[in-house]
Write a structure and sequence with these properties.
The protein is mainly α. The chain has 22 helices and two strands. It is 57% helix and 2% strand. The protein is globular and about 65 Å long. The structure holds acetyl coenzyme *A (ACO) and oxaloacetate ion. Acetyl coenzyme *A binds at residues 306-308, 310, 342, 347-354, 401-404, 408-410. One of its GO terms (biological process) is carbohydrate metabolic process. It is found in: Mitochondrion. InterPro entries: Citrate_synth-like_lrg_a-sub, Citrate_synth-like_sm_a-sub, Citrate_synthase, Citrate_synthase_AS, Citrate_synthase_sf.
Length: 472
């Protein structure tokens, strides 16, 4: 039987520190749980939405042109999304905070004494769900809650173990996430007849549970396909989400990579609502599919080469260039390689964006990380990323098609993983997939809290369009 109140978690893993053990039990005096924090913000959100509806329901947000219908709905303001907003020139803000703001304000690895100094994905999750910056204690408590919920049910382990190694890791990831719906609190509560106003509670319960389990799913796939890690997915409640993930995939002793994964997973979390993965989670969730089903669908969209898979593509492309011209490509050689790519009819992976018209601030954040880490400064692949970012915008401008000739986040992300030894690039989008949950799931909670309806835009055939427009 499913309880509709959010249960206090029980610790399962061995030897937690006292502080973390207390946090996981939800018993640290005066420290709010994420569930309590979300419960506090929902009445205000509902009030804001009611006011917006009563004051402005009939106001226009712009015209819909045939070019919008034929052009992937680019630029149309047609979704509500609370966690983040993307500006074409200044990039992403999370509840109004830029990435540098988040780097200053969100509790990071140093604040929590974890080794490293990058912001924690837990801090970003809290910000995205509540709009508020958590305290160090709140983040510690959340890390412990996630650790306590991180172990996979054995049937999901068996499902993952049954996949052929040749099945793309993203297909494995989406299938395993979908299978977790077996234990969905939302699905069970819905079957029992939960009230609509309470939908958000089991949605949040499932969402926290899913974020907690993603590292173990990802690590098991990594072990099965690439043989790294010990195959056990042991979780230590004294570690943060990414500390545990790094350990599970066999890089626990690598502080640089662990800290890089924290930054990577925090900043890839949310990119407003219209990108393929976030939009998919929202669309599927609008049919009241539970968070596991909704996020499984989102992962399948993330697996496309024009979206998340681009980070895998970039590395293959960059290594191909190194194979062809050697490790220290000149600007001229890079230019030639870029033109070869374009002339063969392919896109330059890691460049261009549907919304951005300036270099992606996430690319800037990853470049800043590389500048900060002495071990990355001599890396030929990291140097190559930098040089390509100096040459490609000019070539893409000259080519004349791309609306945005600047690097997006994928231009840098995979190359840093490669430098740290995580060189299996078919796996890279799985790491992106751990991250995107941190943005897509909070919106699902908000969708249910605000009672948003099933999404169902109007489509038209060419004949219907011609008739509507009075064309012959
Ligand atoms: C996390 C993320 O998802 S970030 C995006 C990751 N994807 C990539 O890096 C793949 C490479 N980039 C692209 O394919 C595109 O720039 C996208 C998919 C990101 C955006 O697509 P759009 O909004 O349609 O881009 P845009 O309006 O600039 O496209 C106009 C033309 O330029 C082309 N173009 C866009 N970017 C590139 C590029 N990097 N290399 C070559 N051509 C490009 C498009 O294919 C399109 O050509 P077409 O008219 O022949 O169809
Ligand atoms: O915003 C987009 O369309 C693509 C993107 O960068 C993301 O989803 O992170």
């Amino acid at each position: 039987m499913i309880s509709l109140t959010i249960p206090r978690v029980a610790l399962r893993a061995a030897a937690p520190s006292r502080q973390f053990a207390a946090a996981a039990n939800g018993s640290v005096r005066g420290v709010k749980t994420l569930t309590e924090a979300v419960g506090e913000v929902i009445p205000k959100k509902r009030e804001e939405l009611a006011q917006l509806k009563s004051s402005s329901a009939d106001k226009s947000l712009g015209e819909v042109k045939v070019s919008n219908l034929l052009g992937g709905m680019r630029g149309l303001k047609i979704m509500l999304w609370e966690g983040s907003v993307l500006d074409a020139n200044t990039g992403i803000t999370f509840h109004g905070k830029t990435i540098p703001d988040c780097e200053k304000e969100l509790p990071n690895a140093k604040d929590l004494g974890l080794g490293g100094k990058e912001m924690l994905p837990e801090s970003m999750l809290w910000l995205l769900l509540t709009g508020n910056v958590p305290s160090n204690e709140e983040v510690k408590q959340l890390s412990a809650e996630l650790a306590a919920k991180g172990k996979l049910p054995s049937f999901v382990e068996k499902i993952i173990d049954s996949f052929p190694k040749t099945l793309h890791p993203m297909t494995q990831f989406a299938a395993a996430v979908g299978a977790l719906n077996h234990d969905s609190a939302f699905a069970a509560a819905y079957t029992k007849g939960i009230k609509k106003t309470e939908y958000w509670q089991p949605t949040l319960e499932d969402s926290i549970d899913l974020v907690a389990k993603l590292p173990a799913i990802a690590a098991r796939i990594y072990y099965n396909v690439f043989g790294k890690g010990d195959g056990q997915q042991k979780i230590d409640t004294s570690k943060d989400l990414i500390g545990n993930y790094a350990e599970m995939i066999g890089y626990g002793g690598n502080e640089g990579l662990t800290d890089y994964l924290r930054l990577y997973i925090a900043i890839h979390g949310d990119h407003e609502g219209g990108n393929v993965s976030a939009h998919t989670a929202h669309l599927v969730g609008s049919a009241l599919s539970d968070p596991y089903l909704s996020y499984s669908a989102a992962l399948l969209g993330l697996a496309g080469p024009l979206h998340g898979l681009a980070n895998q593509e970039v590395l293959g492309w960059a290594l191909g260039m190194q194979d062809k011209v050697g490790p220290n490509a000149s600007h001229e050689q890079i230019k030639e390689y870029l033109w070869d790519t374009l002339k063969s009819g392919r896109v330059v992976p890691g460049y261009g964006h549907a919304v951005l018209r300036r270099p992606d601030p996430r690319f800037t954040a990853l470049s800043r990380f590389c500048d900060d880490r002495p071990e990355l400064q001599q890396s030929s692949i990291v140097q190559l990323v930098k040089k390509v970012s100096e040459v490609a915008p000019g070539v893409l401008k000259e080519h004349g098609k791309t609306a945005n000739p600047f690097p997006n986040v994928d231009a840098a992300s995979g190359c840093v993983l490669h430098e740290y030894g995580l060189s299996e690039f078919r796996y890279y989008t799985v790491i992106f997939g751990i991250s995107r949950a941190i943005g897509a799931l909070p919106q699902l909670v908000m969708d249910r809290a605000l009672g948003l309806p099933i999404e169902r835009p109007k489509s038209m055939s060419i004949a219907a369009l011609n008739k509507h427009l009075g064309n012959n």
